[in-house]
Amino acid sequence: MATLTTPTFDELFAGAPVMAILRGMPADKSVELAVRAWDLGIECVEVPVQDEAAAEALAAVVAAGAGRGRQVGAGTVTTAGRLAWAVSAGAAFTVAPGFDAEVARASVAAGLPHLPGVATPTDVQAARALGLTWLKAFPASVLGVDWFKAMRGPFPEVPFVATGGIDAGNAAAYLAAGARVVAVGSALEDPAQLPRLAELSKRR
Questions:
Q1: Per-residue pLDDT tens over the stretch 99-129
Q2: CATH number at residue 79
Q3: Range of 191's domain?
Q4: Is residue 47 classed as helix, strand or coil in its secondary structure?
Q5: Global confidence as pTM
Q6: Is residue 3 situated within a structural domain?
């Protein structure tokens, strides 16, 4: 497997404002969707690691990405054990649904940029104080587009990734409200989603 340089989130998200989340799929299906996403121009892919089977799927997608010069992240990294799976699989970054300073520090120490979940100004300040730059707004569909507009005032410098309840139908609204990236997960069960999201990327 080829060795890739660990990127920053600025580099990871420079190509397109969309990240595909491949949750709860077997390894072969995960690789198939990841390759389809890359072929369509969606460069950033995350595979949540909630159990050992998911960790194996992550490793398979990482291997497929290495051959194409694509980085793959590990999602739902909420414990030291899941971080170990991410490192073992060769993930380039980690993502979590919430902010846990211990997990964040461990991930960064392992050489993996960490994208923590936030939902309040307090979360944002705590994560930024730890040196984390990009933050994941979760669950975005519950927070709503107005949350992103409101956060522009006190935190204009913070790049947010809108995650949770995002699909090709509402992604543009979140980007217009201030999200820098949208992450799409369960909606990808619909095969029409990836081409529509790729078109959104091309318009940016």
A1: 999 999 999 999 999 999 999 999 999 999 9
A2: 3.20.20.70
A3: 9-203
A4: strand
A5: 0.94
A6: no
Burial class (CB in 10 A: 0-12, 13-18, 19+), 157: exposed
Instruction: Report the C-alpha gap between 13 and 133 in whole angstroms.
Output: 13
The residues annotated with a catalytic role in the active site are 46, 136
Phi and psi, residue 144, nearest 5°: 85, 160
Residue 185 inside a domain? The answer is yes
Calpha distance 140→143 (Å, rounded): 5
Under 8 Å between Cβ of 166 and 20: no
In a domain, 179, yes or no: yes
List all residues 6 or more positions away from 159 whose beta carbon is below 8 Å from its beta carbon: 9, 13, 133, 134, 135, 180, 181
With H, G, I as helix, E, B as strand and everything else as coil, classify residue 162: strand
Cα–Cα distance, 169 to 41 (Å, whole number): 18
Indicate if the pLDDT at residue 148 is higher than 90.
Answer: yes
2: in domain: no
